[in-house]
Amino acid sequence: MRIAIAGLLVAAAVIVGLIVNAHHPGLLFASAPPIFGDWQPHVGPGTPAALLIAFLVVAKGPELAQHRFALPIAYVTATLWTFSLAMIDGWDRFVTRLTTVDEYLHEVPGVTDIPAMLTGFTQRILDFQPDSWTTHVSGHPPGALLTFVSLDRVGLGGGTVASIFCVLVGSLAVVAIPKAIGDNAVLPFLVLFPGAIWVGASGDGMFMGVAAVGIYLLTRWPLLGGIVLGWCLFLSYGLVLLAPLAIAALWRQGDRFGAIGRRIGWALAGALAVVAAFAVSGFWWLDGYELVKIRYYQGIGDVRPYWYWVWANLAALALVIGPAGVRGLRKDKWIIAAGIAILAADLSGLSKAETERIWLPFAVWLLAGTAKLDRRWLTAQAVTALAVNHLVLTNW
């Protein structure tokens, strides 16, 4: 039933989207609704590799998930899967995704003084100013820009390194999630995560990996996990919605309130330390958030219709998690927590101007329920990813 509902939702989003595009071109800002991209069937140099990796994971993945080196094998395979999907669109497209006029790297050369950048960051968020930040920098706290500036400072600048960095960090989610939930059986499904299409390469792919590591660390070392999740707050304002997943990580069945309270206290201490460090450096998160809401409606957020995207975003999400993700939805604390975060973002209206990549840090946790699924569902994951990547030339 869940698969049928998801299928109908995707079909409705496609049909309604095409009708809207035919009568109101440009209104949806998605030529291949509900995906932000263009209908353009194509193959590329990554096609053979993607097919081979999919075949091997379906054939050997469930057995290798129990191997003593399962985690490193899964990490390498997920990285190769993501890279091969990106190469379907070609190398040139992969290395320039983060260098366009709307992206983070566009602003890197202009950051010659990091303390001054942090102090004056909020003054450049609003649009229609001579020195307004480019779209992605203005729409995020300074941590994302600071990451790419730091790479540039150590001699690892440019689009090639930035794109590879996003893939390598994003793939850490494949390792962190099984460790957090305590079940390696989900590994093959995480490896063939259809959302990998948007991990290579986007800032949100990087955010997914950092967030997953932070959530895992909360289950073991709350202070360290709090620090990492505190950093997440300065990668994207939307990552404040990791709170339900953080609670899921800190809550252990049968624990007394005092034990849970201590873990929460350590986690908050770590996160607040990061918030304080940015505040001392001149950036106050709440000021940035209030200005970003204004900037949001200075762009396509003011045009894209809420009535369509409030449900079509869920259709896009279904493609991100794939049939196995939909089939594995159940009453599980990780899935419930991720679902709460996704619904909050969707209903807020502050996600209707975004694309499927924004769901990555939350959507990947919906695969926590795939542990008991068989190879047929692994095949379905691979087919979904390959079909979307070959039929649509995605913007991310």
From TrEMBL:
Coiled coil: none annotated. Keywords: Membrane, Transmembrane, Transmembrane helix. The chain crosses the membrane at residues 46-62, 69-88, 154-177, 189-217, 223-251, 263-286, 306-326. It comes from the Bacteria. The keyword Calcium does not apply. This is Integral membrane protein. It comes from Lentzea atacamensis.
